[in-house]
Amino acid sequence: MEAGIVGLPNVGKSTLFNALTAAGALAANYPFATIEPNVGIVAVPDPRLGVIASHISTQKIIPASMRLVDIAGIVRGASVGEGLGNQFLSHIREVDAILHVVRCFDKGAGGEDITHVEGSVDPIRDIETIETELILADLQTVESALPKAERAARSKDPEAIVRLSVLQRIRPVLDEGRSARGVSFEKPEEQRALRSLGMLSAKRVLYIANVDEDDVRGEGKHASRVRERTAQEGMEVVPVCAKIEAELGELDEADQREMLESLGLAEPALHSVARAAYRLLGLQSYYTAGPKEVRAWPIPQGATAPQAAGVIHTDFERGFIRAEVYSVADLEKHKSEKAIREAGRLRVEGKSYVMQDGDVCHFLFNV
Question: Tens digit of pLDDT per residue, the chain (367 long)?
Fold first, then answer.
């Protein structure tokens, strides 16, 4: 599972990407500083790992991670090829969710002007520009796919009939300038058909408001407008000052704590971004714990115990027998796995068990 960072040029996407992934130097201040999408791995901050390690002695702690793609800036007209738009839109098609960075700052960190492709700072206009390009690209996809789907449906093939139905339901929504996210598909076969179409505007979105250094909580006029807009859509927004986050990433732990305290922040904003992106991708964590490592493993919400075991190794899923499971809360209360077992809190779960966020597991398997 991976998320793509999108936005107009010069909104701070690459600065944010570099801060999240510690990928290197900041991007140049001009459109299309990133032509090919950069891919990085982002660790997901998780205090439960520290709780587990405080009770189970271990050599190392490994957090869950996810893939993040930095996609070059999209401009108005991208859906018809403006600004290498076709190439960039194809990169968005390949990711599972979108992190939409919106410019909510007026000046650069040193007070310098940073060129905006539209000539002024207006986050709502910018959001609508990106959304419109995704909708127009989807409309082209639907119009191209419909004739073929109509021909295939005449054969009475069930999958072809479902695909045609999905296309017919999406088209009028896109024609009205609304995203495919507004169409609800409950049946699994409809959801599969929708995924096969690669609809850009159907992807889940997290908005990241890139704010001024004096507005780290996102309470200024620009970020407030974004928050109002996203609340109406049932979306989440995280305020971030990408410049500050980049500076924090260059400090050691003590200096970082001092800087955070001076800003009135409990943690870097990027921690909130990483956790929100993790949720956006529909992921949750379970843990394994032992003398060699305490580790968080990302799994899709709703995964069964054998599927979770398969994340460690395919043999674990193939030869799954059972899982021994307890919660982090159990470990906090009883202090050791031995005490958890003696208290009768260690559960034995079979193949049908649906994993819960925060489970600590031992898998038994035979291949």
Answer: 789 999 888 888 888 888 887 643 333 333 433 445 588 888 899 999 999 999 999 999 999 988 888 887 766 665 555 544 456 678 888 899 999 999 998 865 444 555 666 678 899 999 999 999 899 989 999 999 999 999 999 998 899 999 999 999 999 999 999 999 989 888 999 999 998 998 999 999 999 999 999 999 999 999 999 999 998 888 899 999 988 988 898 888 899 999 999 999 899 998 999 999 999 999 999 999 999 999 999 999 999 999 999 999 999 999 999 999 999 999 999 999 999 999 999 999 999 999 999 999 999 999 7
Q: How far is CA 168 from CA 137, 138, 159, 176, in A?
A: 16, 13, 14, 14
Q: What is the CA radius of gyration of the chain?
A: 23
- The model's pTM is 0.84
Scanning the structure block, which residue is given the tokens 């597991």? 361
SS (H, E, C) 250-285: CCCHHHHHHHHHHHCCCCCHHHHHHHHHHHHCCEEE
Enter the tokens of residue 18. Answer: 């570099």
